[in-house]
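ERR on first pass: missing label on line 2. Operator R.T. fixed the label and resubmitted. Corrected input:
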Amino acid sequence: NAGVTQTPKFQVLKTGQSMTLQCAQDMNHEYMSWYRQDPGMGLRLIHYSVGAGITDQGEVPNGYNVSRSTTEDFPLRLLSAAPSQTSVYFCASSKLGLETQYFGPGTRLLVL
Amino acid sequence: GESVGLHLPTLSVQEGDNSIINCAYSNSASDYFIWYKQESGKGPQFIIDIRSNMDKRQGQRVTVLLNKTVKHLSLQIAATQPGDSAVYFCAETRRGGGSYIPTFGRGTSLIVHP
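pass 2 clean. output:
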C-alpha cells in the first residue's frame, strides 16, 4: 500500500491564482481530512469527509473548497489564492470509528 | 473556545535519558487523546492514544498518562534515542460524523543529544 499520497510536494502561486491540491489513499478509509500547519502552530482542520459525497467544514474552511466523488480521492481547491494561505497542507485518512489517522507527506504552498 | 496547549516548546535531553512531554487541555468533554510525532519534512505519525476512562497506557518505550482532575496529559519516552528527535503534538478529540476529529496543540520540539 502507498498509504496517503499528496501532490504536488511544492507549489508557488501568485495572489488570485487557483489550484488544486491532490490527496489519495489506497487503504479504503472512509474518513479523510485536510489540515494546514503554520510555523509554531499545530495542525488546524480545514475540511473533512466521512465518505463519498459527504463533506463538512473544519476550524478554518474559508477560502477552500473540497469534494469527495470517490472513496480514494479528496482534493482541496483554492479558488483565489491569498498570501495568508501560505502554509504546509496535510491530508489524512482513517477508518470510521477508528481514531488512528494516517497523514500524507504534505504540500508546501507559497502564495506571493 | 476550548484549546489544547503544551507547557514546554523545546525539550533537550541526552541520549539514554527519559523524556517527559506535557500537555494541558481545557475541554472536559473530550473523551480521547492522541500523541503524534512529526519528523522534519514529514507528516505527523501516530504514537499512542488514551481514552478518558483510563489514566495510563503503555506502548513500546512510550507511556501516556492522563490526569483528568487537572486536565493534564503527558508522554513519557524511555531511554530516549537520537531518532526520537522530532516535534510531538498532543490532540484532544471529539466525535463527528462517526469518526473522531482531533484538535491539535502547538507541539513540543524534542532534541536528543548523542
